[in-house]
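Final report, Chapter 2: Outcomes

The project's central promise was a pipeline that accepts a single protein chain and returns its three-dimensional structure in a standardized token representation, suitable for archiving and comparison. That pipeline is now operational. To close this chapter, we reproduce one record exactly as it appears in the project archive, with the input sequence first and the structure output second.
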Amino acid sequence: MSTGSTPPRTSWPQSGPFRPPPRPALPRHAASDAAQADAAESPAPGPEPSAATPHRRARLERVYVITNGRSAPGSDLDLVTLIVATDAAPPGLPPEQATIMRLCRRPLSVAELSAHLRLPFSATAVLVGDLLAAGLAVQRRPVRPAAIDHELLEQVINGLRRL
């Protein structure tokens, strides 16, 4: 609801970040002065739009550098493919791949590795693909369930109904 003399905005700005119109001044009270003083001391609830852009750009640049610009793994990996390290990490391995080797002493899925590394799945798949190609890790495909025998299921259901 509009209480002041400012007309409502009918269109968005054509360029630059969105800035809402200024709010009309409210009557001052002692309680609102105290709230304004508290607000001045505490940081804003969210990051500035301009501050989020460099962080996102830095994160994308990090992923690009880690994967050497590649976006597809050399082997066919999916979220549930289990990865197991064959040996200890050799010296000189990049830190992300050394972490994968350390984590994969026991079988871990590519999705779990992605969560541990805090990297997108595609970047994790590229790193794991490099380890697989070098023979430092092996992949274990999940066991697919056998085809369901509908006749057997019907016999089981009929047997349960007879009980």
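Archive annotation: The beta strands are 82-85, 108-109, 137-140.
This record, like all others produced under the grant, will remain available to the consortium after the project formally closes.
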